[in-house]
Design brief:
- Belongs to the glycosyltransferase 2 family.
- Residues 5-142 form the Glycosyltransferase 2-like domain.
- The protein is of the alpha/beta class.
- It folds into two domains: 2-209, Spore Coat Polysaccharide Biosynthesis Protein SpsA, Chain A, CATH 3.90.550.10; 233-309, no CATH class.
- It is 44% helix and 20% strand.
- Strands 1, 2, 3, 4, 5, 6, 7, 8 and 9 form a nine-stranded mixed β-sheet that branches.
- Helix 1 links the parallel strand 1 (2-10) and strand 2 (33-41).
- Helix 1 (15-26) runs parallel beside helix 2 (49-59), helix 7 (182-192) runs parallel beside helix 9 (219-234) and helix 10 runs antiparallel to helix 11 (271-278).
- It is globular, with a radius of gyration of 20 Å.
Length: 316
């Protein structure tokens, strides 16, 4: 029987969110496919622990098992993920955030892709469920043929959509404490190490997006950390974070919060207000130009492929 481990961390997500994630993982199992769900709770005061234990005991069966561990102190996302990797009993590891969920067949399709392609990591397209707007958005990733050229410019691999070969991730040092770009840092180190990527062009993961979520409330810091991670991996930096020093502009929390309010307002604005806000910050202007540059070189590559092959590439 094939065994897959799914790794999830929890901090203060609601019981409803966590229940939805766990049930979506359980639905991946069958008589030929055993799924272990490793859950690390990085919150010693997590209020829904009792309910979570009851749910776990209810769902566990011969093809599915939840392994729940609670940290005695807050370790942070990267260290909690590394702990989940160490605890997991399978060499095939899938990642899922506690407020996201899987579509049916995700683990089977990713496992088949890893085996068939002899890959170290496989990722998928995703659906963004924007709760506040009550709408869904389909997000296509780029294919693995674009990893070498584009991954160092932009992170297009959704963390919650990946499955990877455990020994490959361990060989590059697992996650480093570079939140909220710890996943991007890992992808770049895998690329630099010559590991193989594969892609399933289906929306097999749904990500919940809320206006008050960390991904939306910390936009400026996310973008700055992603730039730092790109610079760090440009020279194939292998040092531990005891040696690597974060730049000063990632330590000034007051300045970060002020700039984050600006970029959040820019993203939410429409029409002329968006135009004026866009020119109110050098950082926002640079972010817009970075995005335009990325899309321009991608378009240029696609046009060249179309001219050379007589058809458009089908992985974008």
């Amino acid at each position: 029987m094939t065994k897959i481990s799914v790794i999830t961390t929890i901090y203060n997500e609601t019981f409803y969110q966590v229940k939805r994630a766990i049930e979506s993982v359980k639905n991946q199992s069958d008589k030929n496919f055993f799924v272990e769900h490793v859950i690390v709770i990085d919150n010693p005061q997590y209020k829904d622990m009792k309910q979570l234990r009851i749910l776990s005991n209810t769902l566990n069966n011969r093809n599915f098992y939840t392994n729940i561990v609670q940290n005695e102190r807050n370790l942070g996302l990267s260290q909690s993920l590394n702990k989940a990797i160490e605890i997991s009993s399978s060499d095939f590891l899938a990642r899922l955030d506690s407020d996201d969920w899987m579509n049916q067949g995700r683990l089977y399709k990713q496992y088949q892709s890893l085996i068939t392609m002899n890959a170290d990591l496989v990722y998928t397209d995703t659906i963004l469920s924007r709760v506040d707007r009550r709408e869904n958005e389909y997000v296509s990733a780029l294919g693995p043929d674009k990893i070498n050229k584009f991954l160092s410019l932009k992170n297009f691999i959704s963390h919650s959509s990946v499955m990877f070969w455990k020994p490959a991730v361990i060989s590059v040092g697992k996650y480093r404490k570079l939140e909220p770009a710890e996943d991007y840092d890992l992808w770049l180190r895998l690329k630099n190490a010559g590991k193989t990527f594969a892609y399933v062009s289906e929306p097999l993961t749904i990500r919940e997006i809320r206006s008050d979520s960390i991904s939306n409330s910390n936009l400026y810091y996310q973008i700055k950390m992603a730039r730092f991670v790109r610079k760090l991996n440009k020279y194939h930096e292998k040092n531990s974070l005891d040696v690597i020093k974060l730049p000063k502009n990632l330590k000034n929390r007051n300045k970060l919060e002020k700039l984050n309010k600006k970029i959040s307002a820019f993203r939410a604005a429409e029409g002329l207000r968006k135009f004026f806000l866009g020119f109110s910050s050098v950082f926002i202007i640079r972010t817009i130009l970075d995005d335009v540059y990325f899309k321009a070189i991608l378009l240029n590559m696609n046009l060249k492929n179309k001219l050379n092959n007589g058809k458009s590439p089908n992985n974008y």
